[in-house]
Design brief:
Blueprint lengths: L26 H16 L5 E7 L5 E7 L2 E3 L2 E7 L3 H8 L2 E8 L4 E11 L2 H10 L2 H9 L9 H14 L12 E15 L7 E8 L2 E6 L3
Helix pairs in contact: 4-5
């Protein structure tokens, strides 16, 4: 293969199909069905998704984060409120999520409005995190320029010593959850000859309308 030439890298999909009569009228129930199946085949990272935001410069930004809760209220992830993604959300509270589950040949695209979750909910989740992750939330000035790796490790050691005798490590005020309240959810199923199935749920007031898109 010539350098940079990826013409021959291809895969013909064909694990399953997605028909209108098979999808759940509730997109959250449909997501749960697909997600539970993905967990069985993708393992512990089935909850990884690409979060896309719009920066202050008008350019799109994408990064992989982890889904931590989903339900009728929306989809929740956690981060540093001083991070670049948080700054993007502050200036433009619209975002998109993209899940891709390779083994199932499935993709879910979600777009909606973002808001911070209640601090009490963030507190509850923070307490459930592993000790190292809780200390890491204090140690990392996320998205800020740092001189080297040693700086980060020294910060971690400093907070590790600080909280060594603490019964409970408090959640940093600058760290917490975001909730994406979806306005549109698309379920994509890979099919042969690139004739993929695409079923969309779009919110109209309190009602979800569904339709099919050409691939």
């Amino acid at each position: 293969m010539d350098q940079g030439n990826l013409y021959d890298m291809r895969k013909d999909y064909g694990v399953r199909e997605l028909r209108e009569e098979d999808v759940n009228p509730n997109p959250y129930d449909q997501f749960e069905e697909w997600f539970k199946q993905a967990v069985k085949t993708e393992g512990s990272e089935a909850n990884a998704f690409t979060l896309s935001t719009i920066g202050e410069d008008g350019m799109p930004e994408g990064r992989v984060v982890l889904l931590k809760f989903y339900g009728e209220d929306g989809f929740t992830f956690y981060t540093n409120y001083n991070s670049r993604k948080a700054n993007d959300i502050e200036s433009n509270p619209k975002a998109a999520m993209t899940f891709y589950w390779r083994t199932k040949e499935q993709q879910v695209r979600i777009k909606g409005i973002v808001s911070k979750v209640d601090p009490i909910i963030s507190d509850e989740y923070y307490k459930e995190r592993p000790l190292g992750s809780r200390i890491g939330a204090w140690a990392s000035p996320q998205s800020q320029i740092i001189p080297n790796r040693s700086f980060l490790e020294e910060q971690y050691k400093e907070f590790e010593d600080k909280f060594n005798s603490s019964v409970e490590i408090p959640r940093p005020e600058y760290w917490g959850g975001y909730l994406i309240d979806p306005t549109r959810i698309e379920f994509w199923q890979g099919r042969s000859s690139r004739l993929h199935d695409r079923i969309v749920y779009e919110k109209d007031g309190d009602i979800w309308k569904t339709y099919r898109l050409a691939p």
